[in-house]
Write a structure and sequence with these properties.
CATH class of the largest domain: Alpha Beta
Strand order of the largest sheet: 15-12-14-13-17-18-16
Low-confidence stretches: none
Number of helices: 17
Mean pLDDT: 95
Helix content: 25-40%
Radius of gyration: 23 Å
Structural class: alpha+beta
Number of strands: 18
CATH architecture of the largest domain: 2-Layer Sandwich
Distance between the termini: 26 Å
Shape: globular
C-alpha cells in the first residue's frame, strides 16, 4: 500500500487537522479504558459528519486499510482499540455529536453516534422527557458505543437495554454506502431487521453514525432504598415481592456484596455507610412513579415493611431526599472505581436466568475458594435483569501480579460455571478482542458459522474492526 497516498486522500476528505499521525496526538486513542493494552494505528481520523465517515470508508476500502471505530473508548473488552500491527486506522466519532431532533409527541430523540449519553439524557429532560439508558460511564460513553455493545445499565429491568430503546439507525456500510434507517416507527414489518443486526455487532458489520431512540414521560418522582439481606436468595425473594407489589414502578434493583461496600468505604471514605452494622449483601432499589411522590412513598414503605415482617431483609434505609438518594447510588456507582484503586482484579460480565443466580453464586464461590484459596469475590450487578459483575480479586496477602497470571484458570472456572447454569459470558460489555476466542467454547458451531457467514457477506474484505467478536 502507498501509505503517503492513503493519508493524503484522508486529509483531502477531512482536512489535515483531523488526520492525526504523530504519536503524541494518537496516544489517547490507542489505550483501552482499563490501561491494560495499547495498540498501534496508522492514523486517527476524525470525521465531522456521516458523509465524511462514508468518504473515509471508501478510501479505506480502496487502499484495503482496516478501520477501528471508536466512540468514548470506555469499553472493557478491547473492542474499541486497534491491535499492535499498526496497519489500521482509528475512526473517532467524537465530532459527530449533535442532537439532531426531538419529537416529544412521538417520544423519540435522534442523535449522532458520537453524542455523549449524558448530553442526550439532558436534552431529553429539557423536552420534559426521559431517556432511561443509564450507566456509570454516561458522562463519557457515546450513543454509538452504547448501541454497538448493546449496553445495559441500571434501568434495564423497566425499560430494556440499548437494543430495546432503539427504533432506527443510520449506518455506513463496509462499501462506504449510507443506510438511512432513521425512522421513529414502533411498527415496521417490511423485511429483515437490519437495525438489530448492527446493534451489538461492535462495529464489525458497519459504522453506526446516528440513531433514533425511545423517550418516555418524566416520572413525577423517584424514590430509592437500600435493603440489607442475608443471602442472594433473600435478594431474589425481595425482587419477587417488589415486582408483585410495585409493578412497573420498580425501575432499579441492584445487588451488592458487603465486600463491595467495604472497598467503597476504604477508598471513598466521604461516602457514609448507612447502616449501624455490616450485613452480607445489600439491594439498592428504585421506584419511578408517574402518579405522585405520596403514592410512591406508600408503595415503597409498604414493600419494605412487608419484607421486614417476612424476614426477607434484615434492615433498610429509605432516602428522604434527592441528596440522600444520590448518596445511596454513589455507593453502587463507585464500586468499580474502588476496585481499580484496590488493585488489579479479574472481571466477569455475565448473565444468568434470574432464578438461578443465587445457586450460581454459591456454587462458583465454593469452586473458586477450592482452587484459589483466599481469593475475594466482588459480586454486584443488575439483579433485576440477571446481569452480574462477578469479579475476582487476589487475596490481600498475595501479590496481585502472581494472582493475575492465573487469569485463564479463573476465567475457565467462572465461565464453565456460567455455562452450566445456562448463562452467557458477556451480558453488556460485548466480546471485543478479549473474549473472541473464549466464546468459541460456549457457542454452538451452528451459531458461530452463521455469524461468520453474515460477517463475510457484509464485510468480505474484513476491514470493519477486524479481530473483534469473530
Amino acid at each position: 500500500m502507498d501509505t503517503h497516498a492513503f493519508l493524503n486522500a484522508c486529509r483531502d476528505a477531512l482536512g489535515a487537522a483531523h488526520v492525526l499521525t504523530a504519536d503524541a496526538d494518537k496516544a489517547a486513542y490507542l489505550t483501552d479504558q482499563r490501561q491494560r493494552f495499547t495498540g498501534q494505528a496508522l492514523a486517527v481520523v476524525k470525521p465531522a459528519n456521516t458523509v465524511q465517515v462514508a468518504a473515509i470508508v471508501r478510501i479505506c476500502r480502496h487502499f484495503q486499510v482496516p478501520i477501528v471505530p471508536q466512540g468514548g473508548n470506555t469499553g472493557l473488552v478491547l473492542g474499541s482499540v486497534p491491535d499492535q500491527s499498526g496497519q489500521a486506522i482509528v475512526l473517532s466519532l467524537k465530532r459527530l455529536n449533535r442532537i439532531r431532533a426531538i419529537d416529544a409527541v412521538n417520544h423519540t430523540i435522534t442523535v449522532d453516534a458520537g453524542c455523549i449519553l449524558q448530553t442526550a439524557q439532558e436534552a431529553a429532560v429539557a423536552a420534559d422527557r426521559l431517556l432511561p439508558l443509564s450507566l456509570a460511564a454516561e458522562g463519557s460513553c457515546t450513543i454509538g458505543g452504547n448501541l454497538s455493545t448493546n449496553a445495559g445499565g441500571t434501568a434495564v429491568l423497566r425499560y430494556g437495554n440499548a437494543r430495546e430503546l432503539c427504533l432506527g439507525l443510520e449506518v455506513v456500510t463496509p462499501q462506504g454506502e449510507i443506510l438511512n434507517g432513521l425512522r421513529g416507527l414502533r411498527k415496521d414489518n417490511t423485511g429483515y431487521d437490519l437495525r438489530d443486526l448492527y446493534i451489538g455487532a461492535e462495529g464489525t458489520l458497519g459504522i453506526i453514525t446516528a440513531a433514533v431512540l425511545k423517550l418516555f414521560p418524566l416520572p413525577q418522582t423517584q424514590l430509592t432504598a437500600l435493603a440489607a439481606v442475608s443471602t442472594p436468595e433473600h435478594a431474589l425473594r425481595l425482587l419477587t415481592l417488589a415486582q408483585s407489589r410495585c409493578g412497573a414502578t420498580l425501575t432499579g434493583f441492584e445487588l451488592m456484596s458487603d465486600l463491595c461496600l467495604q472497598l467503597v468505604g476504604k477508598h471513598f471514605p466521604q461516602l457514609a455507610f448507612p447502616f449501624d452494622q455490616r450485613h452480607p449483601h445489600y439491594v439498592l432499589l428504585e421506584l419511578s412513579d408517574s402518579e405522585s411522590a405520596a403514592h410512591a412513598s406508600r408503595l415503597l414503605e409498604a414493600l419494605i415493611g412487608s419484607a421486614l415482617e417476612q424476614e426477607i431483609c434484615r434492615d433498610a434505609v429509605l432516602a428522604s431526599s434527592t441528596a440522600q438518594a444520590r448518596a445511596l447510588w454513589h455507593l453502587r456507582e463507585n464500586i468499580s472505581l474502588a476496585q481499580a484503586q484496590e488493585g488489579p482484579n479479574i472481571k466477569h460480565d455475565i448473565s444468568l436466568p434470574i432464578s438461578r443466580i443465587a445457586d450460581f453464586i454459591a456454587a462458583t464461590d465454593t469452586l473458586l475458594q477450592q482452587r484459589f484459596p483466599g481469593c475475594r469475590n466482588v459480586t454486584f450487578g443488575h439483579l433485576g435483569d440477571g446481569n452480574l459483575h462477578y469479579n475476582v480479586a487476589p487475596p490481600p496477602d498475595r501479590p496481585a501480579d502472581e494472582f493475575l497470571q492465573r487469569q485463564t484458570e479463573i476465567n475457565r472456572v467462572v465461565h464453565d460455571s456460567v455455562d452450566r447454569f445456562g448463562g452467557s459470558i458477556s451480558a453488556e460489555h460485548g466480546l471485543g478482542a478479549l473474549k473472541r476466542e473464549e466464546i468459541l467454547r460456549y457457542k454452538s458451531a451452528v451459531e458461530i458459522n452463521l455469524m461468520k457467514t453474515i460477517k463475510h457477506a457484509l464485510d468480505p474484505l474484513n476491514l470493519m474492526n477486524p479481530g473483534k467478536v469473530i
